[in-house]
Amino acid sequence: MKETGSAGRTLAIVAVAVVVATVAAAIRVMGGPAAQREAKLDVRRVDDLQRIAMLVDMRVRHGEALPADLPALAVRPGTRVALLDPAGVPYEYQPTGGRGYRLCADFSTDTAITPEAWRGDEWAHGAGRQCFERTAPVPRADRTP
Prior knowledge:
single chain; 145 residues; 3 strands; Type II secretion system protein
């Protein structure tokens, strides 16, 4: 009977060791709670920049000039534009000439290190201040019947 108790204790120790190793490996791969929070904030930053780009592109597509700045983009009733990132840092928008413009934000993570939260190369970024060069579409031709 002593052998059964000893084997059970050994099995329990092995099981606990496996669980601890699994949890440690998961934290290492996924990052701790703080790293996951930072990655989620960066996803939100990209979502905000994508919305800004969509609104700029829609205005140009409808024959309007590029807005001079972000507040000018948000003046239309019903238009919601994030001027600040989730940490309260202002997003940056600059017309660069012609239909070109630049969108910038401060990121906490690098998509090369945390690719599991990423959705393609168009908005891939490193940590720190990153800018994205964009070109608004050609305005639509007037479709008056």
